[in-house]
User: What shape does this take?
Amino acid sequence: MNRRFALLALWAVLMAPLAGLWWQTASPDADLDALVADTGNWAMAWLAIAVVMTPLAKLWRPLARQLWLRRAVGLAAFAASVVHLWLYVLAMRGFAEPGGEWALIADEALTPGILTGWISLMLMLLPTLASNDAAMRLLRRAWKPVQRLAWPAAAVALAHMAVVHDAFSLAMAVAGIVAGLQLVRFFPATRKV
Ligand code: HEM
Assistant: This one.
């Protein structure tokens, strides 16, 4: 299978749950708050997977050959975050006068729960834009540091998850797994016995 097609196919599979949630907004009894929460959880899941793939590949060699698929996972994390943001805008519409949702969104943008969401999305923007061969050629040595912005993005997204909806324990559990796996990067490589 051609690599570009494989990346697209994986991306489509990862986006399927988000498309399903988006679809539900068409129903008149859609619970928009629940849909915001669900899309946030998917965005968090894909972002966490994108940042643990490299350390996991160190523990499990067959994954090392598939690390190029990380690009589709990172792009899915960003796209899922955009779906999450759009559903949030729709939910805010329910609380505002017609056309007044942007003023409400601006009003709460600096509260800790929401600000952390915006910061995480902004941190994901550069690595997302640089997730292609042309950017890799253009940025050369600067490409890796740009991709590493996914780590602070994941850390801030976890803070967002912890604050925004009393999901502290779950956020700490995910943070523990993600941080624990990052430590694997510093393990010395062992020789086969
Ligand atoms: C763009 C700015 C963002 C805004 C305005 C925003 C807004 C929100 C809101 C209002 C909730 C509460 C939903 C509820 O429980 O009622 C929420 C929950 C959540 N968001 Fe975001 N978010 C943003 C970005 C992100 C990003 C980038 C991620 C992850 C990559 C993310 C992950 C989550 C998670 C995991 C939850 C918790 C879901 C739950 O309660 O079960 N958010 N967000």
User: Anything to note?
Assistant: The pocket of protoporphyrin IX containing FE is lined by residues 33, 36-37, 40-41, 43-44, 47, 77, 81, 84-85, 88, 114, 117-118, 120-121, 157, 160-161, 164-165, 167 (CB under 6 Å). The chain has a mean pLDDT of 92. Residues 58 and 190 are 11 Å apart (CA to CA). The two ends are 36 Å apart (CA to CA).
